[in-house]
Amino acid sequence: MSKQSTEADVAFIQALAELLNKNELTELSVKREYAEDDSLEVRVVKQANIVTTSVAAAPAVVTTASAPAAAAVPAVNDDPAQHPGAVTSPMVGTAYLAAEPGSTPFVSVGATVSEGQTLMIIEAMKTMNHIPAPRAGTVKRILVADGNAVEYGAPLMIIE
Questions:
Q1: What pTM does this model have?
Q2: Which in 29, 50, 99, 150 has the greatest CB count within 10 A?
């Protein structure tokens, strides 16, 4: 594929994400055929906010609250994306916490990681992309479950 078609694909995916938000959809799948052996399959999924009650608790999926309800809840760093130790997704895809099903996860809550260490894999367009730790620290929270869809910029974990 040429650079020009790659840029067109990125623009196409961005347009799909805007369409998803504009029409308040949660998921959108499209397959684009270029030639007999050349196609692009895109699945854009809007992920709900994930909130954990403590480090040991399992994440609970919560839908975005309306403005009046949100005002009643104290805003004590509830948004993991705003946390200074947040590791965010560099792409849209499917997150995997281990190299293969049933194997040991790359990291777990409480684990000490070094800069560049693989935290997880995000599969995008049938390519497995290793997500490295941007800094050394301790994994405080893992905000995605194995096999969950993630979108660009979504918080994946907190490292302090």
A1: 0.51
A2: 150
